[in-house]
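Case study: glycogen phosphorylase.
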Amino acid sequence: MKAIRRFTVRPVLPDPLRQLSDLARNLRWSWHAETRDLFQSVDPERWAASGGDPVRLLGGVPPARLAELAGDRRFLRRLAAVAGDLNDYMTGDRWYQSQPDELPAAIAYFSPEFGITAALPQYSGGLGILAGDHLKAASDLGVPLIGVGLLYRHGYFRQTLSRDGWQQEHYPVLDPNELPLVLLEEPDGTPAQVALALPGGKQLRARIWQAQVGRVPLLLLDSDVEENDLGERGVTDRLYGGGSEHRLLQEMLLGIGGVRAVRTYCRLTGHPGPEVFHTNEGHAGFLGLERIAELCADGLDFDSALEAVRAGTVFTTHTPVPAGIDRFDRELVARHFGPDAELPRIDVGRVLRLGMETYPGGEPNLFNMAVMGLRLAQRANGVSLLHGNVSREMFSGLWPGFDADEVPITSVTNGVHAPTWVAPEVFRLGARQIGVQRAEDALTVGGSDRWDAVADIPDQEIWDLRRGLREQLVTEVRERLRASWRQRGAATAELGWIDGVLDPDVLTIGFARRVPSYKRLTLMLRDRDRLMDLLLHPERPVQIVVAGKAHPADDGGKRLVQELVRFTDDPRVRHRIVFLPDYGMAMAQKLYPGCDIWLNNPLRPLEACGTSGMKAALNGCLNLSVLDGWWDEWFQPDFGWAIPTADGVGTDPDHRDDIEAAALYDLLEQRVTPRFYERGRSGLPDRWIEMVRRTLSLLGPKVLAGRMVREYVERLYTPAALAHRSMDPDAARDLAEWKERVRAAWPGVTVDHVETSASQALAELGTTLGLRVRVGLGDLGPDDVDVQVVSGRVDEEDRIGDATVVPLKPVGSPAGDGRWVYEGPLSLDRTGPFGYTVRILPAHRLLASSAELGLMAGPSEELVEAAGLLMR
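Here is what the predicted structure looks like once written out:
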């Protein structure tokens, strides 16, 4: 029989054990080994059955066992020590508290998904895991972050396979009362709520659940409340589900409702209000509109409020392709804003202009969330150096006239939260070398360029560690494979072969990620005979563990999964290659440490960063990857291999896959497997062990989320906070009026005449020429602009590369027609073809970049033809 109503009955803990509840509700346990060990000792069998979830564990421990523990003095001493450690962690000064006073009082960090722990399944892939690692690293560093997201009642789907290998999706219902969450309440005990106005006089209401991620509160909005109609209750039903309007409502709730949730949280708890708002991808972009509306309600006009909001906003883009960006029909967006819907005091036309693709090649009827995010943020970044370059190219239409390298999008390369992803055995090995506290600091705060202590670890210890982790993975794979085959309908009697799957002494390759086509799950299958030869080699075999989910609506991705599964079902190779369904954090934490090689073969440059290889590297796993994302930036032959790419403009996609698959097979046959299996005089693979050592010592410090968050604080959050403080209402009005005046006057800004002291087009290195320029500024003055000479080597088409920019200075008084003369030096500091040009840019002390307005004036075509000066 099926229950008609469900309750969550929480255990009543004896007074001596009350601190267990506090420990269970703070998700620091997910990366703090001592806390997990304590919970495991409560009831080891139930701990395993709960999937390592303290809330579920405590809900199932019999009262007799709780009474026994309440009288166990040894257990109570451990409990007091762990609880005291958490209190010190929560209240003590950390890295952030030792920094200068100018740092932000608080930062609000918005993301559509957060991967904190498998016990809180609110993530689908890399974006969510990155967001979770960002929060954890911020907590370790003491950064006053507030996380904001949505609480999905079905989370992301669980994946199983049919008998013929087709992906099946299941959406288990999540009860917030059974998750490590507490409901944010008003002083009278009623649930705190936010509400959005919908067309037709309806409302979308949401409660606010709070997860405590160490020191960082994470606010999750839940629309499944009784006051909502059925349609509105389903807005937060599942991650990345539904049609366009469903997604739009999710993103309005995340952005607009999220700001309201932050305000409510700060009012109820006394937490400082955020000075900086960081939107992790475009999904939360509407947060800027809500903040504009707040300022307009306080008396600012829209343009001034826009400047004030931009000053304190950071936008991070994660996609290297336009297809990865959420875009909505403009009529749909227009219907949800304005007098009869949300933000009624803001003109709908102003809202639409923020997201319209008004650049060449754009679609004027689509509202682009990333474009809005960039227009509402004064600071923006990609997530690796290569991705920063790709992003500047992709969004260059928003800054017409500027070279891509001057587009104001910087990059902060992602990192991973080492305490979450480093196996306990790896940590203990490091702690034996340098002590527990120093090892913890190295993994959380970071700051050093290299971990030199790794050099002192004996080869035998490193090899024994790697073999032990591989053995653990073999056990895990067999258990998961057996469960998967049972779900596919196999009888237990058919599954004896699983006991021989994988070998703890065989080179093990891991490949696990989402399954969009560009990640090329099946590249390894391009030449099946060569792959079989690798898997079954008599002296140097390899074994491969694969995992990944295709989006529920992506039948192409599901076909790739099925193709791979059918290959792994082949009795000839199924002991050497496996596909594990339902890839998630719990599986990943076993997979990364247990592999010797982490394989990544996306189509370059479509991987924005790709952090799975970073997690593998922190466990001594070597990367074998296309030079994309972070690997393009940090690859060295000392600690991995680069798969050559065939990314020429004219390369046929199928031919490209053939070329790159062949390169992958060559690397495995000729370089990777010989290195793993060859033995030195000690009987160990000393050259392989040296690569593991270099991976840990040289790559380890780079890939930390602590390094990433410190970069955000120093390069983006602090400048944004300073800009926010400078942008009081008067300054915001002045800047808005100045921008309006500059835009109106810009058609009258011209470069009229350029001359140099050079008499011929040949000069010696080190020569400094005098430059004299006459410009027309129209209704503007020298305080409104920068006049610059841009010089450097030129190519065959006279395009300047690796440019040097030098400001010119006005001399004398203006002529009556608004024309000014500027002068300055032109240094010939490079040999070979050398050229220069002159340009005029808007200039104001409150601009973060001279490209901010997307305005530039340069010489006319006629003037360029007349100048004809090229140094050789």
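For the exam, be able to explain this: Residues 255 and 284 are 4 Å apart (CA to CA).
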